[in-house]
Amino acid sequence: MNPSASPTQRRYDLDWIRVGAFGLLILYHVGLVYGVYDWHVHSAHTFEWMREAILITNPWRLTLLFLVSGAALRFMTLRRTPRQVARARFERLVPPLLFGAVVLVPIQAWIEAMDKGGWPGGVAGYVAWMAREFSPAGLADGVPVNHLWFIVYIAAYSLVTILLWRRPGLIERLGDVLQRALRGPWLLVLPILYLSAIRLFLFPHFGITNMLHWDWYNHALSLAAFVFGFCIVGRESVWRDMERYRWLALGLAAVALPIMMVQVWHPGARAFWGAPRALVYGVDQWATIVAILGFGSRHLRARGGPVLNYLTQATFPLYLAHQTILVAAVWIIRPAALPVGLEALFLVAATFLGSLAIYEVVRRIPVLRPLWGLKPLDDRPWPLDLKALIRPTQPYHRRRRLLGVGVAAPILALTVVAAAIAAYPGFNNATQYLSELGGASARAPIIFNGGVFVAGVMAGLAGIGFGLGIYALTGARVAGWVIAVVFVLAGAGMAGSTLYPWPDPRHMVINLALGIQLAPLLLLWGLRRRRDMPRLKVFLAATFVVMAILTVLTKHLVLPGTVNDANVGWWERLYAIVLVGWVGIAAWVLDRKLLHHATVSPPHRPASAALDVPI
Predict the structure, then answer these.
(1) Is residue 229 within 8 Å of 160, Cβ to Cβ?
(2) Is residue 490 within 8 Å of residue 515, measured between CB atoms?
């Protein structure tokens, strides 16, 4: 490889541009909710001016992303063979694509079917819709990928580029040609002419379909940008010219944008076979890209840091999650008939924060990371490292697995409750108890009863992990035993209650689960000798105080009437979230501490535990 054409260090400016472009994509999709174009679901508020407003980013945003993606692929080729690069692309792109097509996209498509086609709601409606879509007849019509088309194209373009790269010297020769051709002002002129030409001659016939087999204008645009980024990322003369012409490019884009907006609605835009309109579109498209790349190269090339590292890792999961969250948020909030400003603010916040919340969860669960486009932790094989499972070598591996069950149990419990509420038409969260979700009046009680039974078993296993974890960290044998017993009894109460659904009197065995109220104090007791976990201790103390306050407020105890028949459901929901939610957080913190403990200092057997078998 020609050294002058090889990137030798990380380009933080490209990372910043990629993060910013994906952030704009989320805002763009929120804008489509209020636009006049056909999209998956719309707000009750729509605006004609959105037809012009989307032109602020629409011409160049995805083209810039493909260019940056091609540059990123070139960095992957350093110190890797074509086979290794192809395998790395497959591992990062295919699992999220399959997961998204089976799990994320169907939620969007089902909501769209309810909104536009009158498809019935509820769990029964969703199951029937999924059965139809993934039946032989439904699969014959194709599997919708919605916003995941970008992943399909990145995978296909990566394969094409790797094949070109395999031809000895081809990429270097192509880079040399581009470097010579784009010197000086030709950096602006030639790409604008190319983009205008394909807009004039290809777009009227093919449009943009986002279907790989029939999207020739898009391929002429996006594949060209991808290969261009791959070829020029290491060509410093091209980047110096981008920096040199960044202000001129910004001025051209500022002039072209309002003209392009006028051309959208003015009938004269079709004059001369649409050539002026195509030219203005190409000017805005490339001038904006050059301005962004030029300013980024000038000011951001060496500006890394923890914020960028975090955002770079989060971008792909946010991209996967954002549209599903947005479509669901529109469907949920639209009946409230909020003012447009408040509704738009809610949708933006819900989409960003919901996507970030998903990222924060999945990045901590090794088996889920590759499904969301994240590298496996510690570069371990995925989905299973059979050798590590058969002969685990990491200290405390069994205790940490049990604590991992503790992290997953609250997530399962809350998910089951949400699904059971969705399957219970007319369920009143204000006045009804959660136990009624598994009672005779529920339409699908197996969802609640089956899920809570499994969550109860998991709680018992997590309690054993808590007890063993406390013992490993402190040597407090008695505290470990008591903590384990409390959790096992609580789990038994949860699981046993589902065997006698409400209103069977035996259902009240669930009161055994209330013993978890004391578990934060027991953990504080077990951790009293540790001076390096102050935040966990504060969290446990705060959790106990909150649960104590909620207990005092209940209509059964000290302050009767504060919680009454009209709001007891909301009290119970809050109590349940605190009661089970803290377990997952505490289990995760102890798991991290055990991992650190095993790494920094090998596990040792406390003097009082000569007969203990290390786990």
Answers:
(1) no
(2) yes
3-state secondary structure of 288: helix
List C-alpha distances in Å: 437 to 128, 159, 427, 568: 21, 50, 8, 15
Residue tagged 């002039």 (tokens):
255
Specify the 3-state DSSP secondary structure of 62: helix
Handedness of CA 297, 151, 23, 340 (dihedral sign): positive
DSSP string, 357-377: HHHHHHTT-TTTGGGGTPPPG
From the list 157, 4, 178, the residue with the least C-alpha distance to 66 is 157
CA distance linking residue 506 with residue 165, whole number of Å: 70
Q: Which long-range contacts (CB under 8 A, 24 or more apart) does 478-485 make?
A: 479/522, 479/525, 479/526, 480/526, 482/522, 483/519, 483/522, 483/523, 483/526
Q: What percent of the residues of the chain are helix, what percent strand, and what percent coil, each to the nearest 5? A: 75, 0, 25
Q: How far apart are CA 300 and CA 264, in angstroms?
A: 35
Concatenate the DSSP letters of all residues of 5-44 into one string.
Answer: GS--S--HHHHHHHHHHHHHHHHHHHHHHTSSS--S---S
- Residue in the structure block whose two tokens are 């470990």: 480
CB 155 within 8 A of CB 215: no
Bridge partners, residue 531, by sequence: none
Show the DSSP H helices in 384-518 as ranges. Answer: 386-390, 397-422, 445-474, 477-499
Instruction: Estimate the crossing angle of helix 397-422 against helix 568-600, to 10 degrees.
Output: 160
- Quick check: 87 and 382 in contact, CB under 8 A? no
Nearest-angstrom CA–CA distance, 305 and 309: 6
pLDDT at position 389 is 40
Return the closest-CA partner of residue 288 out of 347, 320, 247, 229. 247
What digits encode the pLDDT tens for the residues 241-264?
999 999 999 999 999 999 999 988
What does the alpha-carbon distance between residue 76 and residue 98 come to, in Å, rounded to a whole number?
23
Quote the tokens at residue 133: 């879509």
Alpha carbon distance 403, 353 (integer Å): 27
Residue 97 and residue 91: Cα distance in Å, rounded? 11
Residue whose tokens read 């770079």:
312
User: Whose CA is closest to 518, among 583, 462, 563?
Assistant: 583
pLDDT at residue number 609: 35
Nearest alpha carbon to residue 341 among 47, 109, 12: 47
272: CB partners within 8 A, 6+ apart = none
- pLDDT tens digits, one per residue of 544-591: 888 888 777 665 555 556 667 777 777 777 888 888 888 888 888 888
As a whole number of angstroms, the distance between CA 197 and CA 134 comes to: 41
Assess whether the previous peptide bond of 410 is cis (omega < 30° from 0). no
Under 8 Å between Cβ of 65 and 278: no
- Alpha-carbon distance of 387 to 260, in angstroms, equals 60
Intervals of the chain under pLDDT 50 = 1-7, 381-391, 603-615
Contact 280, 259 (CB under 8 A): yes
Partners of 560 in the β-ladder: 563
- Coil, strand or helix: which one is 331? helix
